[in-house]
Design goal:
This protein is mostly helical. The chain has one domain. Helix content is 41%, strand content 0%. The protein has two helices and no strands.
C-alpha cells in the first residue's frame, strides 16, 4: 500500500493514519487481497536529506 509522504502533485497514496488504518482493516476482510507492506515514493531530487525525510515519515506511520 502506498503512503504519500511528499507534497508533490505527481505522488499518490494514503495521506493520514486514519485512512491507512481504515484501508488496512478493509483489506483484511478481502479474501483475494493480501497486504504485504507499505511503500512511498520520495520526491524527485538529488537532495538526500529530502529523500530521507520521506522515508522517515513512512517509518513514523508504523510506530
Amino acid at each position: 500500500m502506498e503512503v504519500k509522504t511528499s507534497d508533490e502533485d505527481s505522488k499518490y497514496g494514503i495521506q493520514n493514519f486514519e485512512e491507512l488504518l481504515k484501508l488496512t482493516e478493509h483489506c483484511q476482510t478481502l479474501s483475494n487481497i493480501k497486504l504485504l507492506g507499505l511503500m512511498t515514493m520520495a520526491p524527485y531530487t538529488d537532495d538526500e536529506s529530502v529523500i530521507r525525510k520521506s522515508f522517515k515519515k513512512l517509518a513514523k506511520v508504523l510506530k
